[in-house]
Amino acid sequence: MNKLVNVILTSYELQKPDKEKNPEAKWVAKYKVGDWVEILDHDMEWRLHEIKQKHEEDFDGDGIAGDEDFETSYDVGSEKGISNEKMRCSEAGLKLLFGVRPWVWQQYALLKVETKIRFQQDHRDDFCNFDIMGYTEELWDLWLNNPDNFDFKKLYDNTLIGESGRRSLKTHILKPFELMTALAKGDPDWDVTCEEMRSELGVFTYLSFLGDGFIFPFVVFGLQLAIPMILVYTNWDYFSWKQDWEKGEVKWDVFFEKARCILSPLEKTENLQLASLMALVVQVLYLVQVTPDTITNFYLQVGNAGRNVFQKLKSFRMRIRDKKHDRMGQNVGYTLDLVMNTLYVCVLYMINIFNVLQNEDTFELL
């Protein structure tokens, strides 16, 4: 715990001014190897990690750290090249110094922002136009200087806390609002208009996020459910063992025999061998490619991995679901989105294998 507190009290330094590029001195975060900091993990949860290595690059060679031509990055935990803007001091250490009152204010500020903003294009309070950081900093100053908050203000201004401790706390508390601003302004790490985002976002994901607009998703759901059901029913009708199935006398060894070879009295032996070989190739393809891809897709869909915008938003959506903060419409949308992008895909692959094994002409089916 002492290490966490020490990082808080020493992480910010006053950068020396540069008359040409940075005429005014400013405070910048300066972490060291061995410091423990929090970073936003793959599942969009802040977690504590140790800084393993520090990298400094002086592009103009003037030796002035912190100017626009000087770049500092860190290897934190298993992550490489993390900038100090993407890190924050530990919550445990800050609570030890300041108590829990700032986090109560943070919840209040989040509710105020939620009440203030709206989703209406060109409106001054639209999510993309509203100055979220400016608004929350005003709320912070009002709370900090409120006479009823005198005891906390006294602690906050204590010389032992110092400027580094104050800035560490404020940076930590305002981090959620920084993420909102990055999302609203289309920061490169949060650009929801990118091609990758548009290609992966589906109707069920929209419903999961917004919880509204059920008609089109339900139409798509009906179509995606009906097509494979009709296909299975149609093929089922032509199987020679249908009557045995209805009598409960199916010989499963005969049913799965086509997994090893294709049988037909109407086809030439050579064609049957090629069809059997193709069926085997399809099964191997599913085993070595489709199965791993499906497992990877499952982890991406449930929001536990991935670094592109779509996957990070899915992770945020998963965190909301975990905390049970979603509305009923969003809950229905999330369930549909998860099922249709995981279980439904697996069922389609199973139907494909089913048809390959039971169809006499594998080439025609493919």
Question: What is the topology?
Answer:
Blueprint: H1 2-10, E1 12-15, E2 26-29, E3 36-40, E4 46-58, E5 70-76, E6 79-82, E7 87-88, H2 91-98, H3 101-116, H4 132-144, H5 150-156, H6 162-173, H7 175-184, H8 195-200, H9 203-210, H10 215-237, H11 242-247, H12 252-255, H13 269-301, H14 309-322, H15 328-341, H16 343-358, H17 362-365
Antiparallel strand pairs: 1-2, 3-4, 3-7, 4-5, 5-6
Describe this entry's structure for a reader:
The chain crosses the membrane at residues 214-233, 331-351. Keywords: Membrane, Transmembrane, Transmembrane helix. A 5-stranded antiparallel beta sheet has the order 6-5-4-3-7. A two-stranded antiparallel sheet has the order 1-2. It has 3 domains: 2-88, no CATH class; 99-190, no CATH class; 203-365, no CATH class. 16% of the residues are buried. A hairpin with a 5-residue loop joins β3 and β4. The protein is elongated, with a radius of gyration of 29 Å. The longest helix has 33 residues, at 269-301. It has helices spanning 2-10, 91-98, 101-116, 132-144, 150-156, 162-173, 175-184, 195-200, 203-210, 215-237, 242-247, 252-255, 269-301, 309-322, 328-341, 343-358, 362-365; strands at 12-15, 26-29, 36-40, 46-58, 70-76, 79-82, 87-88. α1 (2-10) crosses α2 (91-98), α9 runs antiparallel to α15 and α13 runs antiparallel to α16 (343-358). Helices cover 55% and strands 11% of the residues. The chain is of the alpha+beta class and 366 residues long.
